[in-house]
From TrEMBL:
Homodimer. This is Histidine--tRNA ligase. Keywords: Glycosyltransferase, Transferase. The keyword Ribonucleoprotein does not apply. L-histidine binds at D65, F66, T67, R92, Q106, E110, R299, Y304, Y305. It holds the Pfam family tRNA-synt_His. Gene3D superfamilies: Bira Bifunctional Protein, Domain 2 (3.30.930.10). It comes from the Bacteria. InterPro entries: aa-tRNA-synth_II, aa-tRNA-synth_II/BPL/LPL, HisRS-like_core, HisRS/HisZ. Residues 14-351 form the Aminoacyl-transfer RNA synthetases class-II family profile domain. GO terms for molecular function: glycosyltransferase activity; histidine-tRNA ligase activity.
Length: 362
């Protein structure tokens, strides 16, 4: 059993290292407004966070992470550029896995910088790699932005693109939508019946449920427009499937992705960013030649990231979550910036898991 004082001491050491790298220490409140987090992540977050109610402040959540409050703080009053570090408790409900801690200490490092995103990505990754050196961890990397660029570049309707973008972090739902938009699966009988009806709801139709008549009519019209749209072209779909299957070391992954870009040219700018990041990582001493890269990495657990993503894992303990993880979240600054935005990247460490692995190695 790890001693809490040992965990706090390690957290303080890590935070001190990040201060030496130029970061300003910040300490967001434990209680965060629930409304903001619900707007960002939807009701799904209720299953992962502790929610309470305050007569004056409304619904509040025990801090599920540091990134959102740090972004809020920076967009409200931060200098430009800026680096921040923090160390403190976060809280996650673990009803699906009671063996995992529902309260643990997290140490982080965040960069807000407009000048060189590739260099900032490399700086964060290299700091995390240095922090976990000696633990024998495997580094995994990816780039959500490549898949996003591919979806945005598809030759299909704007409504379909919005639906696919919304479900990028839900691979099964994403796959089902792709199959439907490519006409690879038959239209369900229930939908066929709906599409074959004349007009929309009539005044004699019974209204059941919470949706208004206008909302139902809009939904029926949207389904009809989608049914009339041509399928996603087979060459685009095959290229997208090949894209999602790329799993190689960085140089070979980039080579494969350049080939795929022949059929999906909109991903080229994202590949240029990957190439620039690879060079920046190599300049910081990272062994890029043997660094794993997977286009689909992070799709089930990194919902607010929109670019570079990475994690460090203990292969001898597959039951453990990442010891360190992070990525780029430019879009989050846009959503919280009230019209302003700034490129941003960050990562967090679990000092308790680091101590656990060190204890097992001793």
């Amino acid at each position: 059993m790890l001693d809490r004082s040992d965990i706090r001491l390690r957290a303080a050491q890590l935070r001190s290292n990040f201060e030496e790298a130029g970061a300003l220490v910040v300490d967001p409140p434990l209680l965060q407004p629930a409304g903001l987090l619900l707007d960002l992540y939807g009701e799904d977050i209720r299953a992962r966070a502790y929610v309470t109610s305050d007569g004056l402040r409304g619904e509040q959540m025990l801090r599920p992470d540091f990134t959102v409050p740090v972004v809020q703080m920076h967009m409200r009053e931060g200098a430009d550029p800026a680096r921040y570090t923090y160390a403190g408790e976060v809280f996650r409900r673990q009803e699906h896995d009671p063996d995992r801690a529902n309260e643990y200490v997290q140490v982080g490092y965040e960069i807000f910088d407009r000048d060189n995103s590739a260099a900032a990505d490399a700086e964060v990754f290299a700091l995390m790699a240095k922090s976990v050196a000696g633990l024998g961890l495997r580094a995994a990397t990816g780039d959500i932005g490549i898949l996003m660029a591919a979806v945005q570049g598809l030759n299909t309707t704007a409504r379909r693109k919005v639906a696919l973008m919304r479900h990028i972090w839900r691979p099964r739902r994403f796959r089902a939508l792709l199959d439907r938009y490519a006409h690879r699966v038959p239209v369900p009988q229930s939908r066929q019946a709906l599409l074959s009806t004349d007009g929309v709801l009539t005044g004699t139709d019974a209204e059941i449920g919470k949706r208004s008549r206008a909302e139902i009519d809009d939904r029926i019209q949207a389904l009809r427009e989608d049914a009339a749209a041509p399928p996603i072209a087979e060459n685009e779909l095959l290229a997208l499937e090949a894209l999602m299957a790329v799993r190689e070391t960085v140089p070979y992954a980039l080579e494969q992705l350049r080939d795929i870009a022949v059929d999906l040219p909109p991903i080229t700018p994202a590949l240029d960013r990957l190439e620039a990041r690879s060079a920046a990582l190599a300049a910081r001493g990272v062994d890029v030649e043997h660094l794993d890269f997977e286009v689909s990495y992070g799709r089930t657990s990194m919902e607010y990231y929109d670019g570079f993503v990475f994690g460090f894992y203990a292969e001898t303990r597959p039951d453990l979550p990442p010891i360190a993880s992070g990525g780029r979240y430019d879009a989050l600054t846009r959503r919280l910036g009230q019209g302003a935005e700034i490129p941003a990247v960050g990562a967090v460490l679990r000092p308790d898991l680091m101590l656990l692995l060190e204890e097992a190695q001793s």
